[in-house]
Amino acid sequence: MAVEASGSGRLKVIIVQGKNLVIRDFRSSDPYVIVKLGKQKAKTKVIKNNLNPVWNEELNFTIGAEPTGLLNFEVFDKDLFKRDDKMGRALFNLQPLLSASRLSKILRMSAGETTLRKVVPGRDDSIAEEYSIRCVDGEVVQDVWLRLGGVESGEIQVRMKYVEEEINL
């Protein structure tokens, strides 16, 4: 029985934490994050009265054979009696992660930890600092800080894991 990569898989997006988020209520904010990938959408829980929240929350997405290249992150302040306030947004290009996943499959990496690629911030992205894409025990993983746009301050830390599906022939 042959096993072949299908070009599709699962993307786990862990919203780790936020730092220096903007104040949208009297002295603080009640932040949550919405993540969109194409038509898929997922949301974290709300953290009350916190400008440096820790979510550690995993959101799952399906990547098709023709994946959408951008993840869209939006941070909001939860309000009870009016529309939730925007606290920033960030875009993230998935192509380096998907390319590193293909490389790990070609190299047949499964045990241990290996750095596959380093990515440096560019003018057109939300990346706050250089990061590495690693293969950890067969999973392609990256940890990245994203600078929030459209607001005075704020960053979110995100960990992404991509697991390519296999088809048994």
TrEMBL record:
Taxonomy, superkingdom: Eukaryota
Domain C2 residues, every copy: 1-107
Compartment(s): Cell membrane; Nucleus
Main location: membrane
Keyword vocabulary terms for this entry: Abscisic acid signaling pathway, Calcium, Cell membrane, GTPase activation, Lipid-binding, Membrane, Metal-binding, Nucleus
The UniProt record lists the keyword Repeat: no
InterPro entries registered for this protein in UniProt: C2_dom (IPR000008), C2_domain_sf (IPR035892), CAR1-11 (IPR044562)
Family: Belongs to the plant CAR protein family.
Name recorded for this polypeptide: C2 domain-containing protein
Organism: Citrullus colocynthis (colocynth)
